[in-house]
Amino acid sequence: MKRRSSLRHVQTGRYRDEPVPIRFSALDLYALLDADSDEAKTFTTYLGYWLCLAEHVQTIHGDEPTASILADLRQRKCFRSLKGRGTPRDPEQVRSLMLNGWTSELRLHLIDLDDAGRLWIGNHGAPIDAYYATSRMASAWLLIRDGAVPETHAGLLRAVSALVTSQKLFPKPWDLTCDALMPTPAYGGFPVPPESCSNLSARVDVHDRSAMLLRTTRDRGVKAKVEEAKRKQKRRRARAGERQRHDERMAATTGFDFAWRMRTRSNYGDPGMFRVGTLTGDRSRAYATAVRAWTTATMGLFEAVIAQRAGSLLEESAVYFLTRDRSGIADTLLLPRLKAIGLLST
User: Fold this and answer.
1) Residue 20 pLDDT
2) Using one digit for the tens of pLDDT, what is the confidence trace for 207-232?
3) I need a surface site. Which of 7, 46, 70, 246 has the fewest CB within 10 A?
């Protein structure tokens, strides 16, 4: 008996009940083997954290966040009071820091998002560029404001934490903090107390995952301090109360501490998280896109603050950078941000 033809048969040459043949050459055997590995779970955890940061920015400020960030800043008295405070003490050093920040940001975008194979490699260095891009801009702002910048990463992170907690300068989501671990975790900037969540869960409230990101970052920092104390005291076990003492002394943990955590992990940790744990091109693209989105928004935040105090220096430095960028990437990244804050309008 002749089978009746179907649309599927016309399109594929197969009847509906016939199995689709497997293209064995297209199977990624190692991705199948690695799917339940520790490296894959680690990548899932950090992918979730970066997606959380990017989603937070996008939800509050949209796909082109600079204008929204500037509108939020202008509502803050501490931001408005920055206007007309004179020329920075060391404009050349400020300029150098901004040029370094922009160069690091451009490196984030050297690999096309459709080039999934190279992204697997590029994502290993993405947190490094994200940290140095944003930290150089933070340093430029501190140099403009104070005439000096901390000489260590730890000092810089404490100074940025003070910007978040003391001056109330930064809008959401940069104002979210973890202030203590003991006796129970304490947070700042959250609309409601966050709840516990799984690091591997796909559907988690963005505030709950943000809290986990900050809490685990703080926990790692406290543990490092305890280990350092043990080495200095030549003890095998920490003294009673050592963990709480360091927790109490530590500045509020911010998203910038997480960026530092990711930078050090990429520099010194096992790259298996990327080499083995990425698994698919979609996961690779998602990771790259999220890191880039948070970095771009954070750069826009600092540029808006710098422009309020030293707009002409920012504009002159940007013109120098844009006219010497041979990649063309700066035209799509930096130029729209500066126009959004009222610079380079002609």
Assistant:
1) 52
2) 999 999 999 999 999 999 988 888 88
3) 7
Distance CA 97, CA 139 (A): 7
Please, where are the H alpha helices in 234-346? 242-249, 255-268, 272-275, 281-323, 329-340
Closest CA to 38 of 275, 237, 252: 275
40: helix, strand or coil: helix
What was the pLDDT predicted at 6?
A: 42
What residue spans define the domains of the chain? 53-176+268-346, 178-253
How high does pLDDT run on average in the chain? 88
Helices (H), 37-90: 38-61, 66-74, 77-80
Residue 250 has pLDDT above 90, yes or no: yes
Q: Which residue has the tokens 């955590």?
A: 261
Quick one: tokens of 181?
A: 């671990």
Q: Residue 106: CA atoms inside 13 Å, Cβ hemisphere, count?
A: 19
In SS3 terms, 234-245 reads as: CCCCCCCCHHHH
Contacts of 288 (CB under 8 A, 6+ apart): 108, 111, 113, 119, 122, 123, 126
Sign of the C-alpha dihedral computed for residues 303, 305, 311 and 314 taken in this order:
negative
290, 54 contact by CB (below 8 A): yes
Q: What is the pLDDT of residues 146-158, one digit of tens each?
A: 899 999 999 999 9
Reduce the DSSP state of residue 34 to 3 states and report it. Answer: helix
What is the H or E stretch that residue 198 is in?
Answer: none
Residue 2, φ and ψ in degrees, nearest 5: -80, 135
